[in-house]
Amino acid sequence: MSSDDAYEQPGEPAQTGQPGQPGQPGQPGQVPPRVAMLGLGSMNGAILSGLLASSVRREDVVATTRSAATARARAEEHGITVLAEQETAEANGIAVEQADVVFLGVKPHGIVSLAESIASRLRPGAVVVSVAAAIDLAMLEGALAHGQPVIRSMPNTPLSVGLGVVGLVPGRHASAAHTRTVQTLLESCGAVHVIDESQIDALTGISGSGPAYAFYLAEQMADAGVQLGLDRALAADLAAQTIYGAGRMMVQHQRAGTADAAQLRRAVCSPNGTTERAIDAFDEHGFAAAVSAAVEASASRSAEITEELRTAE
Ligand SMILES: NC(=O)C1=CN([C@@H]2O[C@H](COP(=O)(O)OP(=O)(O)OC[C@H]3O[C@@H](n4cnc5c(N)ncnc54)[C@H](OP(=O)(O)O)[C@@H]3O)[C@@H](O)[C@H]2O)C=CC1
Ligand SMILES: O=C(O)[C@@H]1CCC=N1
């Protein structure tokens, strides 16, 4: 490692999220919020796993799905009540009646009709959090009763293991206390950034879609290892553990201010060594351009879906 590349050792591991606020759920002596998860697929399921492992009690959660088979499977998996719309026509309305925080976790094209269907059943102070890509605050607020607090979010699936990241955009009727409640809840399983709505498509391109980029990189690394003669299981574990270790190391150093990603990369590259050859190969094959195009494609697709849904209204 050259002196330019030297970095300090980090101190204590950084927190994944900001510290909770006094008087908020998850703090000692505070009543945890009652939560409704409408839709329990990849994303709401990941949030639920993270919340149940940290800040929310099973008896305080009611979830819904469309099909009865999924409801049964998810109820068994998480040990919570899951109502199926297929069996109980009013499932979503029933689920939200007692809730303080309601996560809307169906596909983007189903969000507005879902919000309309629960509008009259929500407690006036309940905060509605949409996790959907592309559904803007105007669409959400327009589907609910006037004054209902709404937050648009963009989470990611590593929330399921306490290592997620979430962008939050508070709507017009979400007070600082509503935002703090949701922020504190989600900080129990990830880092939370309160952002402007103009930034959410870019955030989607990096962290919302981003876990798939890391998984794709792991797939390609493992395939390359197999081509070099390794067993698939060994190659897959080498790739996964390397991405996990590099990710943790990078977060700790970045938050401690001791090294950024570029410094950490350079510290692995011995002059004229193996890694330098690998990075040169990445550059020759257009790695930077490919990553930039991928992030841009995700962000643009989000904006495009917003436009498609707006014109379909
Ligand atoms: N997947 C991801 O990594 C991320 C997803 N998102 C957003 O999360 C949202 C959900 O995506 P994802 O979790 O991937 O999708 P999934 O298809 O995995 O899950 C959708 C869920 O919604 C349920 N559902 C559908 N219609 C209804 C209804 N009317 N009432 C109750 N439940 C219903 C489905 O039930 P059933 O299975 O019975 O049909 C299923 O549980 C999307 O808007 C997406 O943009 C955001 C960030 C990341
Ligand atoms: O692919 C999607 O549309 C969703 C939003 C971000 C991650 N998954």
TrEMBL record:
Keyword Nuclease among record annotations: no
A Pfam family the protein falls into: F420_oxidored
Gene Ontology MF terms in the entry: pyrroline-5-carboxylate reductase activity
Catalysed reactions listed for this entry: L-proline + NADP(+) = (S)-1-pyrroline-5-carboxylate + NADPH + 2 H(+); L-proline + NAD(+) = (S)-1-pyrroline-5-carboxylate + NADH + 2 H(+)
EC number: 1.5.1.2
Keyword field: Amino-acid biosynthesis, Cytoplasm, NADP, Oxidoreductase, Proline biosynthesis
Compositional bias segments (type: Low complexity): 9-21
Residue ranges constituting the Pyrroline-5-carboxylate reductase catalytic N-terminal domain according to the UniProt record: 34-133
Chief location of this protein within or outside the cell: cytoplasm
Protein family according to the UniProt entry: Belongs to the pyrroline-5-carboxylate reductase family.
Protein name: Pyrroline-5-carboxylate reductase
Encoding gene per record: proC
